[in-house]
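U., I forgot to send this yesterday:
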Amino acid sequence: MFKVRGLTTMLVLAAVTAASGQERSPDAPMPLSELLTEASHNNSQIAAADYGWQAAKEVPRQVGTLPDPTFTYQQFSVGSPKPFAGYTNSDFSYIGIGASQELPYPGKLRLRGEVAQRDADIKEKERDATSASVADAVKMDYLQLAYLQKTLGILMENRHVLDQLIQDATAHYEVGQGLQAEVLQAQVERTKILREITMHHEQMGQIEAHLKGLLHRDQSSPDIVTEDLSESLLRYTSAELLQMVREHNPQVQIDSSSVGKQDAALTSAKRGSKPDFSLGYMYQNTDRKYRDYYMLTFNVRFPRKARVDAEIAEAAENLAQTKETLDAHLQQQLAQVKQNYVTATSDEELLKEYREGLIPQSDAAYRATLNAYAANRDQFTHVLLYFTNVLTLKLDEAQVLADHETTLAHLETLTGATLR
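Result:
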């Protein structure tokens, strides 16, 4: 199955390549949707969970089938322990052939099969939850990688700008219009940017390694280039998201299936008080001068009441526990969705403030100060101050954008909705 999945992924990627008319360049951005498809087909955790589900689907037929029949061969000797002793001179010696079958009380096997089927349903939901968890991890890595690539571009651009500012400040200092301390301070700021660039490369390498592990890619394969990080507006209300949690949340689905299983187990335990039966028949052959024997056996097994009552009580307690677990997880997921909703809406307001107010205003102040410095009407330290303010605001805006998209990705996992 895993090889089939891998082949399917290759065919899908090949189809995408053929549709584009050319092979994907290693530097070309890869959409998140393609990585999610690749992970769903290649991730080992998902494959293992799927095998567990496939195995669980075979259990209902095992427990819902009648017990194995028993075939018996007997040889009864008379007067001596030797085989066939007395067979020709005693009508008690015989050769017997028979069969017997256990017959559980009607409905017991069906209920056991239903319990096993509910357990298979849980395995299926667990497979879906594993798939959702892996998809969430892929999204987190992708968004973090997109954030680092975006901010790395900001840092590289500002490094070039700062290099030009350092050249201007050095020229002013050489003609006696500036201070050496100003040049040194600018060089310190440049070193800080270089440190951030180095840290970005380190973090990107770590995330690349983790993401390739999720995709089951070779660690020596080309690095992944993400699409540009952009804002996705949250188009669902809080009430709509909360309702989606009740209907599609992976953990809630698992708990709901567990409640169904425990309910079926309680019904099966109650039916366990009914008696079971066994039916047997044997043909006994003696020497031809004696008459043959025919024996029919019918047995009834009565379960002990104390044991059955304990099983019923255990099943009832397990059912109550599972219902409380479902409610606890539901409340936890609802609270998390509400928290993420508040965070997402707040981040949208912050992004608007950054783009329409803080960054344009700070950039205008920086350019005005730069022009004043060029005309020898302001100090270089002010230029450097406003330069670092603009850089900090751009990096902060990128961080808020990454946080916003990460929050939406978590909401997708919690609700099962497509928000990006």
